[in-house]
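Two proteins, back to back. First:
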Amino acid sequence: MINIAIPLQITRNGLLMETDDKRSIDHALSLLIQTACYSWLPDPQYGFILKNLRFEIFNENEGTIFDSVHDDRQTVYHQPLYRMKVTGTSKNVSTFAAELKNAIERYEPRLEQVTATLTYIREERRIYITVKGVIKESHEDYGYETTIKIWK
């Protein structure tokens, strides 16, 4: 695995490399979480599906994204997204945390035993994201935290 620093920085010797595994994984997860699925042509599945719904209406009472289109032309693929809970852990399959865990397992092979938690704080209008796991090479515990401001 090549540890390229993000944001990309070009030096005299090529792209700047990140020598610290934790910081490198932090950069990779930040990029994954900030990228909407279907926005990167070489791999349309890359990204976090919650980012695709940033212009939808957040249903605070249900803890879900409101289905603002809801007509017969909607594809079956998108229907389950509107039933997923924003707050939850990756142990529950009908949560965005489970989607994030799946994306991390697919795109960040340096981590194992991955868990993800998303917590929505209504008063702050933020989603707190916590990712935990183990770095495969060193067997060290790994933790990453970030937030997403709700778009409403």
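And the second protein:
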Amino acid sequence: MTIDVLRNIAMALPAATEDIKWDVHLCFNVGAKMFLITSPDDVPVNATLKVPVDIYHEMLDREGFIPASHLSRYHWVNITDIGLLTKKEWEFLIRQSYDQVVAKLPKKTRQSLSI
């Protein structure tokens, strides 16, 4: 798994954008809200995303999944090595995170983004 694969998955979602935050994190956003945070310069490369409440604790039971600092109360997890998951798993988790963030966007924002 590479950062380019994650980028391709994230950027294929409607109205997705990317930017650098905190000088070192490649972040993917929708409506100016993050749905995926990556640390491409870390070894191994890691990523953080929002997971559904009903699977949050299940995800933390998996090897390499830890609560995301500062975001765990909102059900974000950090995957300590992006290579721990298959492309199919990444597609599912990124889409889940994206959908949750979109659902919280104001209606006017969703309409302006046509999502």
